[in-house]
Amino acid sequence: MNLDELTDGLPKTELVYLREMNRTQLGATTIRVIPEKRTHAYLMLDKTIFHPKGGGQPSDRGVIRSPKFELTLKKAIFHDGIVIHWGKIVSGTISQEPVACELDWPYRYLLMRRHTAAHLLDHCLAAATSERVQTTDSWLDEPCYVGYRGKAPNPQTLKQAEELANTMISNGAVVRIDFLTPEQSKALLQTAPNFERLPNLQEIRTVTIEGCTPIPCGGTHVPDIAEIKQLKIVQAEQMPDETYRIHFSV
Ligand SMILES: [Zn+2]
User: Residue 183: beta bridge partners?
Assistant: First the structure.
C-alpha cells in the first residue's frame, strides 16, 4: 500500500504518547478507513496512544474497537506526521466511527524499561571509557542493542559501565521530558550521543535522566530509572563498519 495515498490530505495525528507515556486507553475519532482485502485495514485517527516504529523503538501493539468491529493492531507506521494503524479485523465490519484504543501495556512497559536503559547505557559507557560516545542506531525488540561508533570497549570497561548503571538504578533517578525550541536545544544538545542524527524540527523533545546529558528522543520512557530494575550487558559485538553493538537485557 502506498503510504502517501493513505495519508493524503489528512491533518497530523496528535501524538498522545509523547506526553502521556503511561496512558493505556484512549477514545479517538476515525478520520479515514481503508480496508485491505476482507481481513485487514488501515485506520487513521485524530490522535493516538500507539507509538509507531521509529528511533529504534518497535511499533506498539494493542486493540482498536468500536461497537461494530474489533481490530488487532499489527503495526503503527509514522508517515508525514501521521500515524497509520494497520491491523487484522478479528470481528465485525470496519467503518469510520469513534473508536476506543487499548494498548498492550506489558509489551510497551518492557520497551519503556529497555529504552530508558539504552539512554542510561550511553551515559555509563561514556563514564567508563572517559570519552563521548556516539550512537549509530538501536533496536529495542529482539535482538535488543544499542550501536556505537568506534571499537568495542574491553570486557573490563563493559563491566564497569554495567556496575555503574546498576548502582544508579538502585539509587533511582527521575526521567524528565522537556519540549524545547530549536534555539534552546542547539546549545543544550551538542554533547548528546545522537546529536549527529537529529532531524530539523519545530519542537525538540528531550529526555533527561537526572544527572545525565539530555538526549533528544521521541520514545517512551519509565518515569524513574529504578523501574529498569537491573541492566545486564549481554555482549559487545564488533561490526565490520567501525561500529559496535552492545546487546543488553533488563
Ligand atoms: Zn531514545
Answer: none
In this predicted structure, the answer to whether residue 198 has a pLDDT above a threshold of 70 is no
pLDDT band for 182, please (50, 70, 90 cuts): confident
| Residues of the domain holding 192 | 107-249
Q: Residue 119 Cα, ligand 1 centroid: separation in angstroms?
A: 6
User: Does 127 lie in the same domain as 32?
Assistant: no
The one-character DSSP state at 121 is H
User: Is the bond leading into 216 cis (omega within 30 degrees of zero)?
Assistant: no
The label of the residue with cell 571499537 reads: 151
Q: Sorting pLDDT into bands at 50, 70 and 90, what band is 12?
A: very high
Distance from Cα 192 to the centre of ligand 1, integer Å? 11
Task: Say what the pLDDT of residue 167 is.
Answer: 98
- Provide the CATH number for the domain around residue 219: 3.30.980.10
Residue 55 Cα, ligand 1 centroid: separation in angstroms? 7
Alpha carbon of 43 to ligand 1 centroid (Å)? 26
Whether 126 and 242 share a structural domain: yes
User: Based on the domain organization, do 121 and 172 belong to the same domain?
Assistant: yes
Name residues whose C-beta falls within 8 Å of residue 173's C-beta, 6 or more positions apart in sequence.
209, 210, 211, 212, 224, 225, 226
- pLDDT of residue 186 exceeding 80, the answer is no
